[in-house]
Structures are given as C-alpha cells and as structure tokens.
Amino acid sequence: MDERGESLNMTVHLLASSGDLSLLQRTIDQLVHWICPGIQLFLVSARVRSFKYYEKYHKKRSGFPGMSVLLFLHEDLGEERIVQMVHFFQHPPWQYHHTENSSGRFCSYMLASQDFYSLDAHMPVWGIRQVHYGTEILRVTLYCHFDNYEDAVRLYEMILQKEATVQKSNFCFFVLYSTESVSVQFSLKQLPPGVPVELKESSVLQFRVQEIGQLVPLLPNQCIPISNTRWQTQDYDGNKILLQIFWALIVQEMVVKFYEVQMQEIVSCDKNTSIPRGQSGLFSGIRQDFFKATDLNTNSEYLFRVRAVNKAGPGAWSEPYKIRCVQEQKMPVMERVL
C-alpha cells in the first residue's frame, strides 16, 4: 500500500518550555531524518502554563505510558547504524524511562533492544526495534484502556476517514505514509484489563479533516474551536486531539486551479426567522487552502460556502458553514497557533 503525499494527515505536537523549543525540535528532527528524511511528523511548540499548574489543579494519574514512538530498523542496513541510534538515546536531552521484558511488563534489568527513553516525563516514550524483513517503520502508538479500545478504533477510523490497514483483536495500525523503504504508521494498542493509562499531557495529536460540521456531533467529547481552522477535543482516554480543517487540492483527478468562497451575513428578525442580509460577497481566484475574512461585525453570524474551479469549470458548492464572529481570545492550550 502506498500512502505517499507532500504532507501527513497526522502531526504530533509536543509542548515544551519556551527555552527548550529549539533544542528539542533539532533533536527529534535529527533522529527522524535517519529513518524518514523529509518527513515532518513532530512539531515542538510552547506550552501556555508550566506543569506546576497542572500538577496542582489536575489529579495525577500513574499507569502505562499512554504514547510511544517506535523505530523499527532493518538489520540489513548495518548494525553500526542501529548502534549509533541507540547511542544517540543515551545522551541528553534524552532520559532513560524504563525497560520492558518480552511479556511487556516492567523489569529492573537493562536490555538494550527494549529500553525506552523520553525527552520529558509528559512526552511520548521512544524505543528501537530490529526488523529482519520488509520496510523500516516509524510507528506512533496510543495505548488504550481495555474498555475503550474498540471505541477508540472506530473514533480514529472516523477521523482519518479510512479503516485500519491492519486490525487484530487488541492492536491495529493506519499507514500515514509509505515508500518502498519506509512506512510511517499510527497505531492503537489495547492494554490488559485493570492497567491504567498514564496520559502524556505534553503530547497533542493533530489530524487534517475536510469536514468539521458533520464530525463534531459524532465525537465522544466536547469539541470547541480554538482558531479559525482548528478545533480541540479528546478521545475516550482523555488524549488531546486537534482537528485542522483543510481543503483538498485534487478533485476527480484534476488539479484545482483556484477556489471561490461565498459569504453572507445573517441578520435575525425574530427568534423564529432569520434572513440573509448585510455583508456579502463572492471571492474568487483563491490559490491557498485557506481563506481569511476581515472587517466582520462582532457578535454577527455568517454563512460561508466554497467550491473548487479547474479546467472543466466550477464544481458544486459545499454545504454552508455557519460561523459566529466573536472577539479574539487567547488560546487555552497553546501559546501560538500550531
């Protein structure tokens, strides 16, 4: 299966102190470049509050690490390369986290191929595995509470708009990107009954979606807008999710030349009737996958719809989006728009 593309439908945002942003981003980029050159899967951003705030006002939960990143390296490409990457994990800013034995339980002895490391206690744990055949793999895994696993699979299938590439009774994965030599995967793993999940509070999964209006009512938790193009929610275990709205650039195998956006202000006459009036317009020749409307009236509601235009002519209008214009507020989760 080939899932090639210029950008991934999923991005992992890691929240850190402002003074650590550059160091952590360079560290992760260097590591990922060894297996997936040119792939931007991880973005380090500034967190709004220090974790002293979260530890004070949020109940601390301990359990199995809720997110991991595993690098499956092909032994045929050289043992020296694998040793070099293991050595990379053993120096700052990486910190040793834990060791697992073959049954997946914690143990006190050190086994190099099963050691896990982390950049922060609230970020994913990282590890290396050897593969004897097939492609190399970069796999981001969410560990799910036993009772939440099946619901989580359906949730992420709905968000990604496709079924899991491989699905077993307690494990599945989605291919986000692949070539002949490497595969980038997002996976879900069911924990044994009674094993709690330790959420990684500095880790946020962002997914690109084309339609937010139909998706929001189907989500298990509240979904709120935090910017013009991003909405925030949580999965069944409490992992933070960002949904980024984007417009597809390919329609019926024909390249889009530009987009057209139509907007209309809604003026309410009474509680039972509302008529479109006031600010309106048609904007054409838009060559980006976003549109910014300015000079809107505060506390007013607007209808927006979009259509693509290619060499065959304009396509059908999308379903209208109803948007309420409010005063800009500081984002509750991140210091800057990701």
Automatic annotation (TrEMBL):
InterPro entries: FAM124, FAM124_dom, FN3_dom, FN3_sf, Ig-like_fold
Record-annotated Fibronectin type-III domain positions: 225-329
Coiled coil: none
Record-linked Pfam families: FAM124, fn3
Gene3D superfamilies noted in UniProt: Immunoglobulins
Domain of life per record: Eukaryota
Gene Ontology CC annotation, any one: nucleoplasm
PANTHER family noted in UniProt: FAM124 DOMAIN-CONTAINING PROTEIN-RELATED, PROTEIN FAM124B
Family: Belongs to the FAM124 family.
Protein name (record): Protein FAM124B isoform X4
Organism: Geotrypetes seraphini (Gaboon caecilian)
Gene that specifies this protein: FAM124B
